[in-house]
Amino acid sequence: MDAIAVDFGATYTRFAVVTSSGKIRRKIVTTTPKTISAIKAMFKRGFDILRQTGVSAKAPLGIASIGPLSSRRGLVLNTPNLGGLSINLKEIVESFHKGPFALLNDCNAAAWGEKVFGVKTKVENLVYIAFGTGLGGGAVVDGHLLLGKDGNAVEIGHIVVDTNSRVRCGCGGMGHWEAFCSGTGLPKLAAQMLGKKLWKTSWEIFESLPRDGRARRVVAKMAEYNAAGYASVINTFDPEILVVGGGLALSHPRETLEKPKHIMKKYQLLRTEMRLSSLGQDAALLGAAAYVLETV
């Protein structure tokens, strides 16, 4: 059986038809719009294109989404990475799709995707961390995907890694891991450290590394925060493996993953294997498909 999978992100949205074995038959990637009407039009257009593959209008549908969520009601609630927008995804998709529906936090979906399709050996305890526009996580514990009462379990981007900083997270909190080390957070960290805004995006900071010592200082501080965050997650969940993904990490694994490995021992009680995602940007898509196919 095929499923339709959607990865609804703050920057990009991906639509795909996925088989039960994890093969992607067709995939579309589009920029995520910022208004309800444009989001609804994007979903309708994406589904129309996917149906050209012959996938049924009653196929199981799994959506991996930015949060916070009310997953049972199919809602995205006041999401900070889309300017506080609230979106009724269930209502949107049910206006043109009649198949069974499941809504997951994107990182929870990615964690499930890594367990089912990504990790080559069978594991029962896994944590997935994504560095993208924001910073999030998902966890599989004793073979079960942790969801929480509303589908928002494992919001590890909001772990406090600095109690003295005045950098404010998109959620409004202070000192959160996401506020320093996500795609939107790294320029804020740079501005705090240097006393002025030199770079608008994290990509500009990484591009400046070979020639600018200030950029290297900022990235070194990011590695320190990442080390503290990774250690906190490992000490909390005791996973067999920790998988790191998201656009920022996939593009810059040395800075986001390898450097923190050499720092984090001083923070760790427990040890685990750490690796970059083998599923890349498709982890959440594949996880959403696998989850909905297992639950229908």
Automatic annotation (TrEMBL):
Gene3D superfamilies: 3.30.420.40. Pfam families: ROK. GO terms for molecular function: N-acylmannosamine kinase activity; UDP-N-acetylglucosamine 2-epimerase activity. Signal peptide: none annotated. This is ROK family protein. It comes from Caldiarchaeum subterraneum.
